[in-house]
Amino acid sequence: MGRFLIFFSYVGKRYSGVQQQLGALRHGRPVKTAGGVLEEALGALSPVSSPRIQVSSRTDRGVHALRNSCHVDLQHPESGKEYDPAIITNVTNYNLLKMGEDVRVVETRRVADDFHSRANAIGRKYVYRLAHSLSPGLSRRLAGQHRDEEDLYKELKKFTQRSKHPKLPLGSLTPILDQDKIFISRSKLDISKLLQAAALLSGIHDFTSFSNKPRTKEEVRPPPHPVKLLTIGVKRGRPLGHKLLSCGPDVAQAENLEFWDIHVQAKSFLYKMVRRCVGGMILVATDVISLADLQDVLENPRRDFPFTSRLSLSEAGLFLVDVEYQQKDLMFNVDNGKIVNCDQVSRENQKSCSELNKTASIVASSSSNPTDVALSSSDPTDVALSSSDPTDVVLSRTDPADVALSRRDQLDVALSRSDPISQLKTL
């Protein structure tokens, strides 16, 4: 049995989130999730038991991911063998392609058997893509038309009376590659206020006001702590395929829009926290609420404030960009069947090398025999023994952890003459 960390990406429009929902039905059909599709594709490897992934970061229906992660235990059908990570990546992607799914494995790594994709994560990065119109009134009329805006709006309402949100003709402004992958504001944004709101939300706060209660019952475990350290950055964005748009028919629509990317980073997030934080920023940038209103709900956490229902934004513009881990947790090495932390080995190597140099210096300074130990002047970490004696040993820094000095007497270095390349052992 081997545990593997899988980084994977998906376009969320076709999936009801990423977490597998066993037994759940939608319109009489089993609910399809990105995680469930990945598990099905992993089955092509024919492991001993059915794959069951543990996802690090749950995303809602319609949310996309460039690099989500999960871990899975896979036992090779042949005794004593393990799956090669490259085989897992390629076979799974081939199967996903055959299935016609919008999920792909980005990378597979062998990890320690006690590694957990969620518990070991040290950070998560999201980006929310948004755009706003640069032309006054363009949000309520088709590009190139000059009808009265109110008349057009009334006519549109005839076709959208049963819709909760009137379907204004925003689709014509969206380049085809950005469809369902960006949020377009119907009002022009004040970017300076957007930046002020981002600065206000950044830092350590109680984000209860910016979270929703989950619709379904969570597993039996303590609720997530609402206090988070949040970092928000605002950068100019571009339409997807912007280089192609320079010569395509969508260039006019793209030029009428200004794109912005909201980067949000924290160790973990509350339910719908990212979308509601960005929603608050947009309300400030469109003068729906003031910066003081946003500060009030931030400093006095609650869910019953006047604009709470207006915070949540469309899931279309939200992307999970990356899940971060400490490098030492991703290192995997096998030593006599035991998992060895490579960072720990490195530290032990440095310590052994330091002790070796110290003792060798004492031996060299106290010896009058030219065939005794001499320090290499080219590199203080290399200790060279006289080559006039066939029993001499040259200690290389390639693996100083394999060499230890006698603790009985640091001035004595005992060489085994039965084996001229035997190692010094710790007594």
TrEMBL record:
SUPFAM superfamilies: Pseudouridine synthase (SSF55120). InterPro entries: PsdUridine_synth_cat_dom_sf (IPR020103), PsdUridine_synth_TruA (IPR001406), PsdUridine_synth_TruA_a/b_dom (IPR020097), PsdUridine_synth_TruA_C (IPR020095), TruA/RsuA/RluB/E/F_N (IPR020094). Coiled coil: none annotated. Gene3D superfamilies: Pseudouridine synthase I, catalytic domain, C-terminal subdomain, Pseudouridine synthase I, catalytic domain, N-terminal subdomain. It catalyses: uridine(38/39/40) in tRNA = pseudouridine(38/39/40) in tRNA. GO terms for biological process: tRNA pseudouridine synthesis. GO terms for molecular function: RNA binding; tRNA pseudouridine(38-40) synthase activity. Pfam families: PseudoU_synth_1 (PF01416). Its EC number is 5.4.99.12. Residues 369-392 are annotated as: Disordered. The keyword Protein transport does not apply. Keywords: Isomerase, tRNA processing. Residues 369-390 have a biased composition (Polar residues). Residues 197-326 form the Pseudouridine synthase I TruA alpha/beta domain. Belongs to the tRNA pseudouridine synthase TruA family. This is tRNA pseudouridine synthase. It comes from Elysia marginata.
